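Justification of resources, computational component.

The compute hours requested in this renewal are based largely on the per-chain cost of generating structure records like the one below. Each record pairs the submitted sequence with a full structure-token output. That output is archived, and it is also reused by downstream analysis tasks.
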Amino acid sequence: ALNMEVPMKVHSPIAPVAMASRPLGLADWRLYLASALFALANLLVPMALHTIPDAGQIFLPMFFFTLLAAWQFGLFAGLAVAVASPLLSHFLTGMPLAVMLPAILSIAVALALVAAILSARTRAVSLPGILVAIAAMQAAGFIVERIAGMPIEKSLTLLRMSIPGMLIMLFGTYLLLRAVNQLLDRANRADQSGKS
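The structure output for this chain reads:
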């Protein structure tokens, strides 16, 4: 078996960073706290951005914290945020519209699945891995749009519109998770040296 874990030593600002924590299991109370906080963020950020025309399609705010939760805390957290966020938003704000819920849920679940699998497999935060998760999200969106009968031209327009959001997801997720995991690694090392 291949050892795909990345050592914590980092020299490049774009080098992969090893994950300093493991995915959270169903019996871990932190799973529920993290999922609730990320779902809340997925609710509040889109509300703040909806003063900008087409903000949902441009910035993809409903998916950013799903990606973060899945990558850092694992499959259960990612799926909880992927499902809870659109449903909470719909019931509290009316957005997304009920007709859009199945598509958004499908896309969010695909993103959470791929991100959690890549994170668990590599145990690292990397730009290529995050890019693959975002590409999987877009592929799921394209498939859902085909099933719904959306013209390809409209799908391509939506894809072009979402480039800023994909870039924010790619670099924002990488930079946030890189910083979090470096801080966690330092805290873990300090804790270990304090015990010895």
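The first strand starts at residue 17 and ends at 18. The helical segments are 29-49, 55-59, 61-73, 75-93, 101-122, 127-147, 152-161, 163-195.
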